[in-house]
Every structure is written in C-alpha cells, then in structure tokens.
Amino acid sequence: MAADDTALPSAADAPASPAGGPQDPALLDRWVDRVAALLELPVHEVDVSLVLDLARDAAHGVARPAAPLTTFLLGLAVGRAGGGVDDARRLAADIAAEIAHLRDPVGPLDADGRSRGGPDLLRADGRRPPARTDVGGRA
C-alpha cells in the first residue's frame, strides 16, 4: 500500500517524551486537522484550548477518567443541539462551575469560619441548573 498525505499519524509518530511531558504542538495540530476532516467538521469550529482546559479540570477536579467522558458529553450535547463554538463555550462554563462546586461544596468561609453559602451555580445564561435528585447515585 502506497503512503499518502492523508494517512493518520500512528502512536509511532508521536515524539518521545516523559509521561505528562510536553508534546510537539504541531503533531496535535495535524491530528486535530485530520480528525476534523475525517468527521467532516470545519477545523475552525474546534476550540482545542477549551477542550483541553475542560479535560484538565475534569481530571483534576473529579477523576482522571472523567476527562474524556466530560469532553465527549460536551461534544454530544453541542452536536445534538446543533450548536457551535459559542454554545460549547457556554456549556463548558456550566460544567466548569459544576466541577468547582464538587471541589468546594460549601463555598467560601467568612472571617468567623462560617459558610457564606455555596458557589453561585447560575449557568452562563443566568439560569439555575435543575435540582439534583440523584445525590449519591444515578437517577
């Protein structure tokens, strides 16, 4: 089989680096370009920083496996709604607020050490999220 310019990079193409170390940004850019083309998505609709920041927040604020799951759910929600980059940013802000709430469920303390209430959980659009009835398990 002849090599062609559209072949996707393999793991062997990745630069050697220590675990968690820096990667070649050009490789990531090429990967995003190729996957966007494969999925027939305009590459300008891919906000790499948004996705990576959300993945980082989910990994550190929830659990490492939450990173790919959270970004997948974001993409699924945006896709089902027929939204674009602005919708992804709005929903990512909502998810980030939920992650922050998990980190600090009682919110900041006042000078006397009493809770001033939880963080403001208004969504980016000003609405409150629905009440959670599934605390401690799935609904």
3D structure, described in words:
This protein has 139 residues and is mainly α. It has a domain at 48-130. 45% of the residues lie in helices and 0% in strands. The chain is built from four helices and no strands. It has helices at 25-38, 48-61, 66-81, 85-103. It is globular. The termini are far apart. The model is unreliable at 118-122 and 132-139 (pLDDT under 50).
**Total DSSP helices:** 4
Residues in β-strands, percent: under 5%
| Cα-atom radius of gyration | 19 Å
Which structural class fits the helix and strand makeup?
mainly alpha
Order of helices and strands: HHHH
Mean pLDDT metric: 76
How helix-rich are the residues, as a percent range? 40-55%
Overall outline: globular
Strand tally is: 0
Task: Report the end-to-end length measured between terminal Cα atoms.
Answer: 51 Å
Counting copies of identical and different chains, the oligomeric state is single chain
List the topology elements:
Blueprint: H1 25-38, H2 48-61, H3 66-81, H4 85-103
Index terms:
disordered C terminus, mainly alpha, 139 residues
In short:
InterPro entries: DUF6457. It holds the Pfam family DUF6457. Helices cover 45% and strands 0% of the residues.
